[in-house]
Write a structure and sequence with these properties.
This protein has 13 helices and 22 strands. By secondary structure, the chain is an alpha/beta fold. It folds into two domains: 272 residues, no CATH class; 59 residues, no CATH class. Helix 3 runs antiparallel to helix 10 and helix 8 crosses helix 9.
Length: 471
C-alpha cells in the first residue's frame, strides 16, 4: 500500500475546511512543527471531545450551535514580528484602531497581538528579560520552553473537564505564556490582544501563566471581533498557577460583536498564601463563562470581579466558581450585570467548602440593573458547604434604573442621557475602579457606547471613543 504524501496527509495552511476531524487536529500540529507529546495531547483531547455530548443545562440548549459549521484554524503562516513597523499594513491599521501603539508607548510593556488563529506581533522588552520573566505566545513557549509548558499544561483545566476544554485542547492556536521567577514582580502589565476577523471561524487561544514562589504577575487582555456576517465561535482556556505566596491579577475586557458565541474556561490554582484576582468584563456576544479559583493551600485567597452587559438578543451567563480546600482560605465575589433592550443577564456561581477547609470565609454579592421593562436579570447561586467552622455570606439585588435618581439629577441641570450614564457608571464603579487607568477610561467610554447601541440614550459623538478593545 502506497504511503500518503505530506500534501495528502495534512491540510495546507491556507486551506482548512469547515468542521473538526482528526486530520484537522494533526494538520494544526504539523504546521506548528510541534513535539510528539503535544500532538498526542491534541489527539487525546479530540477523542474526549467526540465522546462528550453538548451540555444540556443552563442556556446551552437555546443556542443550537453546530461546531462543525466553523473553520477551526485561520490565518496560518503569519510570521511573528519583532517591531511594530514590520507588521502587515492591513493588520497594522486594524490594531492601531485598537490602540496598541498607544499602550506600548505608555506602558513600554511586552505586547502580544493575535489575529484569528495566529500571533502576528510579539515583543518582549529588555526589562522583562533582565528580570528573568518569560512572556511570549504559547507557540513560542512550546518550542523554546517545552518542559515548562509540558509540566503545567492541562493541570488546572484538564482535557476531560468539559466538552469545551477538550475542544480547545485539540485545536488551540495562539495565546499567551508567562513565567515569573521566585520573588520577582512584573514591572508593568503584560498585555495581549485577541481579534477575530474571519467569517464563520473559531478562535481558540490558550493562555498559561505561572507565578513562582513569592512572585507577582499583572496581566491584561482585550478581545474584539469585526465580522458582521454569519457567526463566530470563541473557546479559550486560561490556566493560572500561583505558587506559595505568589499573586496573579488577570484582567479581561471582551468587546465582541453580537454574533459571537463566547464559551470560555478559566481557572486558577492557589498554593499556600497565594492570591488570584480575576477581573472579567463582558460586552457583546452570547457568553457562558465562570472564572474559577481553587484555594488549595492554607491561607490562600481569591477574588472574582465580574461585569457583564446584555443587550438585544444577547445572553450573558457569567459568574464565578471557587473551591476552598486549605485552612483559613478567603474568597470574595462581586458580580454586576446590566440588562437593556431585552437582554438576559444571569449570575451563575458555585462556592464550595471541602471538609478540610476549616476557617474558610467567602462573601458573594451579585447585583443586577435592568434598564427597561423587557430585559431580564437572574441569579443562580449554588453553595456546597461540606466543612465545619466556615462562614459564607451571599447577597443579591435586582433593581430597575431609578426614576427618582434621574429626576434628581435632571433637577440639578444634568441632561437625561448624561444622567443615565452617570447612574450606570456609578453602578459599575466598584469594578471599574479596579482596572488600570487606561482600561478604566476605556470602560467609561464603552458604557456610553453600549447605552447608545441599546437606545437607552441618544447617539452622541464622543472624542476618542475607539480605544484598545473597540471594534
Amino acid at each position: 500500500m502506497q504511503a500518503l504524501s505530506e500534501e495528502e496527509r495534512y491540510y495546507k495552511p491556507d486551506n482548512f475546511p469547515k468542521g473538526l476531524t482528526r486530520k484537522v487536529v494533526e494538520s494544526i500540529s504539523h504546521i506548528k512543527n510541534e513535539p510528539g507529546w503535544l500532538t498526542e495531547f491534541r489527539l487525546k483531547a479530540f477523542e474526549i471531545y467526540q465522546q462528550k455530548p453538548m451540555p444540556t443545562w443552563g442556556f446551552f440548549p437555546q443556542f443550537h450551535v453546530d461546531i462543525d459549521s466553523y473553520v477551526h484554524y485561520v490565518g496560518a503562516n503569519r510570521t511573528k514580528k519583532k517591531s511594530w513597523e514590520e507588521v502587515d499594513p492591513e493588520v497594522l491599521r486594524s490594531f492601531e484602531k485598537l490602540g496598541i501603539p498607544e499602550h506600548e508607548r505608555k506602558y513600554l510593556a511586552g505586547i502580544e497581538a493575535m489575529n484569528d488563529s495566529e500571533t502576528v506581533y510579539a515583543n518582549v522588552k529588555k526589562e522583562l528579560e533582565e528580570l528573568g520573566i518569560i512572556f511570549c505566545d504559547i507557540d513560542t513557549a512550546i518550542r523554546e520552553y517545552s518542559e515548562l509548558v509540558r509540566k503545567y499544561l492541562g493541570t488546572v483545566v484538564t482535557i476531560g473537564d468539559n466538552k469545551f476544554s477538550a475542544l480547545n485542547s485539540c485545536v488551540f492556536s495562539g495565546g499567551s505564556f508567562a513565567y515569573c521567577p521566585k520573588g520577582v514582580k512584573t514591572p508593568m502589565p503584560l498585555q495581549a490582544y485577541f481579534k477575530v476577523t474571519a467569517e464563520s471561524s473559531g478562535q481558540y487561544e490558550r493562555t498559561l501563566l505561572i507565578a513562582d514562589e513569592g512572585s507577582e504577575i499583572e496581566y491584561s487582555e482585550g478581545c474584539s471581533s469585526v465580522q458582521d456576517k454569519g457567526t463566530n465561535f470563541h473557546t479559550a482556556v486560561v490556566e493560572l498557577i500561583a505558587h506559595k505566596n505568589a499573586k496573579i491579577n488577570y484582567t479581561t475586557i471582551q468587546n465582541w460583536k453580537k454574533n459571537m458565541y463566547n464559551w470560555t474556561v478559566k481557572r486558577g490554582l492557589c498554593e499556600e498564601g497565594a492570591h488570584i484576582t480575576w477581573t472579567d468584563c463582558n460586552i457583546g456576544a452570547n457568553t457562558i463563562k465562570y472564572p474559577g479559583i481553587i484555594l488549595k493551600g492554607d491561607n490562600s485567597t481569591g477574588t472574582v470581579l465580574s461585569l457583564a452587559f446584555a443587550g438585544h438578543g444577547q445572553v450573558q451567563d457569567t459568574g464565578a466558581r471557587i473551591i476552598h480546600i486549605g485552612k483559613n482560605t478567603r474568597s470574595n465575589v462581586l458580580a454586576k450585570g446590566i440588562s437593556l433592550d431585552g437582554g438576559i443577564n444571569s449570575y451563575r456561581g458555585l462556592i464550595k467548602f471541602e471538609s478540610s477547609a476549616t476557617g474558610a470565609l467567602s462573601h458573594v454579592k451579585c447585583d443586577g440593573l435592568i434598564m427597561d421593562d423587557h430585559s431580564v436579570s437572574t441569579a443562580y447561586p449554588y453553595n456546597d458547604i461540606s466543612g465545619e467552622n466556615g462562614s459564607l455570606n451571599y447577597e443579591a439585588t435586582v433593581s430597575k434604573i431609578d426614576e427618582e435618581q434621574l429626576f434628581y439629577l435632571q433637577c440639578r441641570g444634568i441632561a437625561e442621557d448624561d444622567a443615565k450614564v452617570l447612574i450606570v457608571n456609578g453602578f459599575c464603579e466598584s469594578i471599574v475602579k479596579e482596572l488600570n487607568v487606561e482600561y478604566s477610561v476605556e470602560m467609561s467610554r464603552l458604557i456610553r457606547m453600549i447605552l447608545e447601541d441599546g437606545k437607552v440614550i441618544a447617539e452622541t459623538p464622543i472624542a476618542n471613543t475607539v480605544g484598545p478593545n473597540c471594534s
